[in-house]
Design a protein that fits this description.
The strands form 3 sheets. A 7-stranded mixed beta sheet has the order 12-11-7-10-9-8-15. The protein starts with a strand and ends with a helix. Strand 1 (3-8), helix 1 and strand 2 (27-33) form a beta-alpha-beta unit. The chain has 13 helices and 15 strands. The chain is α/β, with parallel strands linked by helices and 334 residues long. Helices cover 41% and strands 24% of the residues. The structure holds nicotinamide-adenine-dinucleotide. Residues 8-14, 33-36, 39, 54, 69-72, 74, 92-93, 119, 121, 160, 170, 275 line the site of nicotinamide-adenine-dinucleotide. The site of nicotinamide-adenine-dinucleotide (NAD) has 25 residues, from helix 1.
Length: 334
């Protein structure tokens, strides 16, 4: 069975997912919805799909699944609407900007027996998957410390930041998810530091652009996350895991592996530009996994619960910064 899709929101990530759907034989892109005509027309023209309204997609008999790529503050309502309309839902992170609202949304998913997958694509990155398998097969012994480095080449537009919920809920949330996945044990405490060093206007909007977080589990495993909205040298995405029997790491991806050496030193190509290229394979793999879920009814790999837990870590980090102390996760989730 071919899974028939509609993409809601044809911005940066909507265009990535539309392109992936169009390239998968088991999927077809039937429709796109976006109130910005140019955005909708660009996807419609490129992939030969119809432009429809949200209401038309909700009641359509020729659509099995939707991909929600709209601004974050619209996600919860759209998830609920499409679960009620019996469409399988893939939604970009985060589910909402308020923890209680996230919980209510997940209640609706469960009451309607809905299918919901959250877009934590890093779990589908081929290198990160090999790293995870290395941890699972015990090659480096017990996991003791995880180090995650994620730096964007530059900040997103101000209009995006305004609706994003801020760096912890928007950007660090990917690292929170990866931390939970790799640590394989829930986080017990969160300690965060956050400042504005890239763009003062981001600070005036109540957000930060440079953050560090330390997560600790009940058994004492630690994860350090370092995020910046600026990296002059490209999209900086690295993982290192240190264990009782060694360490395992994934380095940055570059445009090629060619290195030139001469009297001036060693020269390598720049890093890949941003998420659209660095996580290209990951986006394809996650949509393929979602298609399989819809076709075979297998469990979704990144669940609403994963979305909730990662978001709760973002809330803890915000509280840690505001109150300048270590926050216990039971303060946030109990
Ligand atoms: N997983 C990832 O790597 C990743 C990367 C980028 C963004 N995201 C997430 O995806 C979401 C969108 O981010 P973006 O960078 O693509 O934003 P964007 O601003 O580039 O695109 C959002 C699009 O949604 C459209 N839109 C607004 N309201 C709508 C509605 N009610 N119905 C249909 N379309 C609507 C806008 O016109 C715009 O074209 C955010 O929640 C963000 O957190 C995830």
């Amino acid at each position: 069975m071919t899974v028939r899709f509609a993409v809601l929101g044809a911005g940066r990530i909507g265009q990535v997912h539309a392109s992936t759907i169009a390239s998968i034989p088991e999927a077809s892109l039937v429709a796109v919805a976006d109130p910005v005509v140019d955005a909708a027309v660009s996807v419609s023209t490129k992939y030969g799909c119809e432009i429809r309204t949200i209401e038309e997609i909700e009641t359509a008999h020729d659509i099995d699944a939707v991909i929600i790529c709209t601004p974050t503050d619209t996600h919860a309502e759209l998830i609920e609407r499409f679960c009620r309309a019996a469409k399988a839902v893939f939604c970009e992170k985060p589910i909402d900007l308020n923890l209680e609202r996230v919980k209510k949304c997940l209640d609706v998913v469960s009451e309607t027996n809905g299918t919901l997958m959250i877009g934590f694509q890093r779990r589908f990155d081929p290198d990160f998957r090999v790293l995870k398998r290395t941890l699972d097969d015990g090659t480096i012994g017990n996991i003791e410390m995880v180090t995650l480095t994620s730096r964007d080449p530059g900040p997103p537009p101000y209009e995006y930041i305004e609706r994003s919920g801020g760096i912890f809920r928007d950007m660090t949330i990917h690292d929170f998810d990866v931390a939970r996945w790799l640590l394989n044990e829930e986080v017990a405490t969160v300690q965060a530091a956050a400042t504005v060093q890239v763009d003062q206007k981001i600070g005036e909007m109540g957000d930060f652009d440079s953050v560090n977080v330390i997560l600790t589990t009940a058994s004492g495993k630690q994860c350090t996350i370092t995020n910046s909205r600026r990296a002059t040298y490209g999209y900086d995405q690295r993982i290192e895991v240190h264990g009782s029997g060694g360490s395992v790491s994934v380095e940055n991806h570059r445009e090629s592996r060619v290195e030139v050496a001469n009297i001036k030193g060693y020269c390598r190509p720049p890093l890949l530009e941003f998420f659209m290229t660095r996580y290209d394979a990951a986006y394809t793999n996650e949509i393929c996994a979602f298609v399989q879920t819809v076709q075979d009814g297998v469990a979704v790999p990144t669940t609403g619960e994963d979305g909730l837990k990662a978001f709760a870590l973002a809330e803890a980090a915000l509280k840690s910064v505001a109150e300048q102390r270590v926050v216990l996760m039971k303060e946030i989730l109990d």
